[in-house]
Design a protein that fits this description.
By secondary structure, the chain is an alpha/beta fold. Helix content is about 55%, strand content about 10%. Helix 8 runs parallel beside helix 10.
């Protein structure tokens, strides 16, 4: 995977953009003409990086930061505004960073019994059907870590089809891992339908004593709404969100995928190791 694609889809571009915007604002207070011109370039690149990162912080935080940023731009022509506008830019984007950084921390699970998990996924988990000869990651988990793994995954699964499929199963596991949404994001599912379907799925899965773990979707540029929905519903249903950089780190390894999405055997091995690192604290 191209490093720039990884940088954007992982959300790291947001932090790069914030650093550039703040640097540009601070540099603009210097009298040097060269520094002023350079700060303008840094500002432009920073704003582009923030925009394409599709970082799902609340819209009100974006609004405050953008108003402060607009005031700073105007202050380049209205000198008496420069000091307070620069301060506002720095503070507002630092607040945005503080809010976002929590979604880049790995979740931790509480110890539980029995040693079993349920996996709900699409073709990243289920493979590509009859032509796929890979030993899939749920099977690897079960074999290597003495787990009972209930695998409810299906090639081409969307969030809407997943809720219908899940209702046909009896789920007894106290940990459920959800790897779903990629086909919604890349397909024809509207954000409103995705929100309704994901809400229904998590509502059905949520039970007292059960821990839900969901992989956050790596987002293409300007698809912020899908990320906002995932985060909002994760808070609503007490779901542990796995940072999108974690899933992307599996996909980005050179030999992990057939087509940048579907896993090779090496990819399934890495995904199994990744999921085990997430859930191992639950099985002391």
């Amino acid at each position: 995977m191209n490093w720039l694609v990884y940088h954007i889809a992982s959300g790291h571009a947001f932090f790069t953009g914030v650093v550039l915007v703040i640097t540009a604002a601070l540099a603009s207070t210097q009298p040097s003409r060269i520094v002023t011109r350079t700060s303008g370039i840094a500002f432009l690149v920073g704003i582009i990086a923030i925009a394409v990162s599709s970082t799902a912080i609340p819209y009100w935080i974006y609004a405050v930061a953008l108003v402060a940023t607009a005031a700073w731009v105007v202050s380049r022509y209205v000198v008496r505004w420069k000091r307070w506008a620069t301060t506002a830019v720095v503070i507002s984007w630092l607040i945005a960073t503080a809010f976002e950084i929590q979604y880049h921390a790995m979740p931790s699970l509480q110890p539980t019994l029995p040693h079993s998990i349920t996996v709900i996924g699409d073709s990243v988990t289920a493979g590509m059907g009859a032509i796929d000869t890979a030993d899939r990651w749920p099977l690897i988990l079960a074999r290597h870590h003495d787990l009972v793994v209930q695998d409810i995954s299906q090639m081409g699964e969307t969030t809407g089809s997943a809720i219908r499929r899940v209702k046909a199963y009896e789920i007894e596991s106290t940990i459920v891992v959800v790897e779903i949404g990629g086909n919604d994001l890349l397909g024809s599912t509207t954000s409103a339908q995705f929100e309704s379907d994901l809400d229904a799925l998590l509502s059905h899965l949520r039970l007292p004593g059960r821990q839900l773990v969901m992989f956050e979707l790596p987002l293409p540029p300007f698809c912020i709404e899908y990320g906002r929905i995932q985060r909002s519903l994760a808070r609503k249903h007490s779901v542990s969100l796995v940072p999108k950089r974690v899933f992307l780190s599996v996909l980005s390894a050179g030999d992990s995928t057939i087509d940048t999405i579907h896993l090779t055997q090496a990819g399934h091995d890495r995904m199994a190791a990744c999921v085990w690192s997430l859930i191992r604290s639950a099985f002391p």
